[in-house]
Amino acid sequence: MNIVLVGTQWGDEGKGKIIDMLTQDADYVVRYQGGNNAGHTVVVDDKQFILHLVPSGILHKDKICIIGNGVVVDPEVLIEEIKGLRKKGITVDGNLLISDQAHIIFPYHKMMDKVREAKKGKGKIGTTGRGIGPCYTDKASRCGIRLADLFNDAVFREKLKENLDEKNAIFEKLYCCEGFSFDEIYRQYRKYKPRLKKHLCNCSKVLNDAIAEGKSILFEGAQGTFLDIDHGTYPYVTSSSATAGGAITGAGVGPRKINKVIGVAKAYTTRVGEGPFPTEFSSRMMEKIRTKGKEFGATTGRPRRCGWFDAVLVKHSVRLNSLDELVITKLDVLDECKTIKICVGYKIGSRSFTDFPSDIGALSRCKPVYEEMPGWNEETVRITKYENLPKNALRYLSRISELTGAAISIVSVGSDRKQAFKV
Ligand code: IMP
Q: How much is the pLDDT for 176?
């Protein structure tokens, strides 16, 4: 069984933990897009692991983890992450493979990310500053440097020089800041080679061979549907394909090999960075949910913006990803709410509609139309069976399923591995 798991909102849906659960039935776990802008949190026996590049499957013995060709890799971050995992007693050896076609993040990408954002001022995207956008820009403009290039010294030198000639001119002339030295970067990146060499692979071949042998693959999406470069709230998006389609190109596996697509949604909504957010809370409720849900970015520590569950948004996600199932996380965060709102449509002036608008201007003007439900006012963190949830919680979940058109398969009520159950 080959499964793609995606975020259905703006990322941070709690995918790390669900991936960790589903890994039990998988042989391979694959990241296919994004980079260290992601932060997947998994708690095992009170030990917290935050993974930025390495697939969450690494926490399980005997699973092969792959960083696919669609991922952008910052070697320094990756090497540090591997070191950190080993320190915590996790084996990272032949069980971690990295596509040699993955593009490399360089210091000039990170710098470009920062100066572009600074120049945009109020109109900034609110990126994570990890160089993700500029690295994907180079990939699309065909001047990017892939891991395979790092291992061909003549090619690496030539490409790095070409890139630096161009980027340094931009830094100096357009952004009035200093560029980078070829020698420094060349030396720094050469040092990474021995650490990375044994992990390199042809991702598409490894996966297709595994599928032919009847192995199960779990594709671990990062970010979320509304941060997808094509289908998200452009331009307030990341630069990769965070929808299910990204798994196909980002790992080199054909669409007919995918058996199931699972979406993860929080029981409410969050977003980090700029961009429209129709169901965003007012300040009092924001503070309450942010504190209870520990809504601070796993990568940047930035406070996340929080709001009510938006069924219009998730319904759109169900369609975009052909979701077979929906997982609801962090239900417990709503335990103390007297009433709970679900957004069932939008209004612009006197016009009402229930489809997600593609025009960002229209989305910014949308006022949510809410349905209100009574809360359950009961602790859910110790519940271990779906049918034991409070009646009003069951009603809430059933309404979400009805409005989004997706069957709910797992509900999570806390950060620990054990605090989740099948429906
Ligand atoms: P970038 O991916 O760093 O270019 O950031 C672009 C947008 O995506 C910003 O709004 C970020 O806050 C958001 N973003 C990127 N990665 C994540 C993530 O893993 N979770 C939530 N938001 C993210």
A: 94
pLDDT, residue 47, reads 83
Catalytic residue among 20, 40, 113, 231: 40
Asked if 40 is an active-site residue, the reply is yes
Domain ranges of the chain: 3-100+199-262, 104-193, 264-422
Alpha helices (runs of H) in 44-106, residue ranges in sequence order: 75-87
Task: Please indicate whether residue 37, judged by its CB atom, sits closer than 6 Å to ligand 1.
Answer: yes
Which pLDDT does position 417 carry in this prediction? 82
Q: How far is the CA of 358 from the centre of ligand 1 (A)?
A: 19
Q: What are phi and psi of 35, to 5 degrees?
A: -155, -140
Q: Which of the listed residues 72, 241, 272, 295 should we mutate to test ligand 1's pocket, taking the one with most ligand atoms within 8 A of CB?
A: 272
Domain 3-100+199-262: state its class: alpha beta
Predicted TM-score of the model (pTM): 0.96
Beta strand pairing call for 325-329 and 47-51: unpaired
Token pair listed for 52: 């930025």
How many of the other CB atoms lie within 10 Å of CB of 116? 18
Instruction: Say yes or no: do domains 104-193 and 264-422 share a fold.
Output: no
User: From ligand 1's centre to the CA of 248, what distance in Å?
Assistant: 21
Question: For residue 87, with 0-12 CB atoms within 10 Å meaning exposed, 13-18 middle and 19 or more buried, which class applies?
Answer: exposed
CB 126 near ligand 1, within 6 Å: yes
- Identify the pLDDT of residue 205: 98
CATH number, domain 264-422: 3.90.170.10
- The answer to whether the CB of 127 is under 6 A from ligand 1 is yes
Per DSSP, the chain holds a count of helices (H) and strands (E) of: 13, 20
Q: What is the mean pLDDT of residues 161-186?
A: 97
- Residue whose CA is at the smallest distance from ligand 1 atom 16: 37
Taking a C-beta distance cutoff of 8 angstroms, is the pair 351, 286 a contact? no
Predicted pLDDT of residue 141: 97
| Per-residue model confidence (pLDDT) at position 355 | 93
222 burial (CB, 10 Å; 0-12 / 13-18 / 19+) is buried
386: helix, strand or coil? helix
Q: How far is the CA of 132 from the centre of ligand 1 (A)?
A: 9
| CATH assignment of 104-193, among 3.20.20.510, 1.10.300.10, 1.20.1440.80, 1.10.8.60 | 1.10.300.10
When mean pLDDT is compared across 45-49, 103-107, 385-389, the lowest value belongs to 45-49
Active site residue 335: no
